[in-house]
Amino acid sequence: MSPLRAGARAGLLALVAWSLAGCGGPPPSPASVSAASPDGYITAEEAVGWEEFPADAVLSYGPDDRQVAELRTPDGDGSHPVAVILHGGCWTSRADQGYMDAVAVALTEAGWATWNLEFRSIDEEGGAWPGIFRDVGAGIDHLREVADLHRLDLDRVAAVGHSSGGHLALWAAARHRIPSGSVLHTPDPLRLRAVVGLAAMADLEHYHALGIDWDDGCGDAATQLLGWVPPPDAPERVAQASPSALPPSGVPQLLLTGADDRAVPPTIGETYAAQARAAGAEVEHHIVDRAAHFELVAPWTGAWATVWRLVEPFLQEVRR
Known about the structure:
alpha/beta; Rossmann fold; 8 strands; 33% helix; globular; disordered N terminus
């Protein structure tokens, strides 16, 4: 698990309160969090070192140690809307769900139950094609098993994913469109009401074609994701695994990309949104100024104010 950063907990909770209050101006910044990249943006190494915060419960949805989810529930009575949180890391074990704790805390403070999902990665036993997809689907569907005990409203479930987790969130919203002959087909998947993709890798072929190396992004991870077959050579797998290749999900989608993101450049979201809208999907894409890749999931950054200003009203539609 990631190392703790002294003082970050109090700073994070203060920042969540700041963001929910809709305050303007620069946000407070915990002294324990710095941006050490040459251009002043948060690095991947920093992100995986953020403090992880205790969950209300850690629940298993399968026999493997990685098949778990962290549940946080908000105060108050009644059934809670649910946000499924899906982390990035290039679909590999470079990262786990811990770096998304800040997002989970922010959403829980805003009234959402959060289901911060872990799954086996493509470089781990059982996670290679089609394992990671099956884990994500099973992890979301497991909400049915815990909904009554934890007062979860399964008619109001959204997904929030970052980077490769954004790809998985968009895929999960469309998996009811996957034909029955596919290895990724689930007969009765839990339906999502909305998807937020933060720096989402929405198009596997487009991402592969950009040739972004491992220093800036995910290198050949899309090839690994598809079972070590490059996307252009695996049309049948792309058709099952890439949100851009699946029929419109019927689920509203909000995509945000940092203007200076080198890992997932804005062109990915722009192109995906345009093509999806042309096919009849309900998709918005926004570029966040003064943000690279990880600012979109860091409540202590100025970019978070923009993220929250867009995400909060979008998700409010799910809660009605």
